Amino acid sequence: xxxxxxxxxxxxxxxxxxxxxxxxxxxxxxxxxxxxxxxxxxxxxxxxxxxxxxxxxxxxxxxxxxxxxxxxxxxx
Length: 76
Prior knowledge:
The protein is an all-alpha fold.
């Protein structure tokens, strides 16, 4: 019960504050406005997700297994 209370306190108050502090520090380090840093981060996340989904489809274990089985049957 106490662990849940500590977790909720951290998640509700400390975590958003830490994210905002990290964003502000990164913006100052890169000499960029905070909204630009935030939107750039979202753009990068979207690009990474798109890449992972495109590669993930081609490297799906079930699909690769089917391709190997078809190749093995054709080789015989």
